[in-house]
Design brief:
Helix content is 54%, strand content 14%. The chain is an alpha/beta fold. A five-stranded parallel β-sheet has the order 2-1-3-4-5, with helices on both faces. The structure holds 5-O-phosphono-beta-D-ribofuranose.
């Protein structure tokens, strides 16, 4: 029997990216989607990057790649595989992550990378799930269930706000902290 693929690869340029990137892993965990998470640095381990990206299609279906600063990791991976690559710009101390965002979002025509907002690894996890949902109905169901829960939470908050007025609502919120 053919072994099932691990569906997503979550890679990042440094272990310092992990506090951000773990949010993609949390989404995939919640949806029961298998993933492999590791560090691959485009500039510190270029040969590992090449080997990873070249072999990625044999093991995975979507790649999420987080990087900060001159964030070439997602673009380089995208150049070496035909799998969809979702880039997560990591917030930086120098330019607040705008450097990472521009590096990832400004891919020249020909090699696309799907970029999420600075630090928004959660959306990267959700987008990966939506891509996989095109092929796996059970994943699409999990995405729908997530959205339904999210909608219900917002409606609940709106009802509470309308009921108690903004001042009391804010008071309740700050006492919850
Ligand atoms: C990038 O350089 C990494 O993605 C990280 O965001 C940034 C800084 O790396 P460290 O110096 O924290 O290892 O390659």
């Amino acid at each position: 029997m053919a072994q099932e693929k691990t569906r997503v690869a979550i890679v990042m340029g440094s272990d310092s990216d992990l506090p951000t990137m773990k949010e993609a892993a949390e989404v995939l965990d919640a949806m029961g989607i298998s993933y492999f998470l590791t560090v691959v640095s485009a500039h510190r381990t270029p040969e590992r990057l090449y080997a990873f990206a070249r072999g990625a299609h044999e093991q995975f279906e979507v790649v999420i790649a987080g990087a900060g600063g001159a964030a070439h990791l997602p673009g380089m991976i995208a150049a070496l595989t035909e799998l969809p690559v979702i880039g997560v710009p990591i917030r930086t101390s120098t330019l607040n992550g705008v450097d990472s965002l521009h590096s990832i979002v400004q891919m020249p025509p020909g090699i696309p990378v799907a970029a999420v907002a600075i630090g928004n690894a959660k959306n990267a996890g959700l987008l990966a799930a939506q891509i996989l949902g095109l092929k796996y109905p059970e994943v699409a169901q999990k995405v729908n269930a997530f959205r339904a829960r999210q909608t219900a939470e917002v409606l609940e908050k709106a009802k509470k706000l309308e009921g108690m007025g903004w001042a009391k609502y804010l008071e309740t919120k700050s006492s919850e902290k």
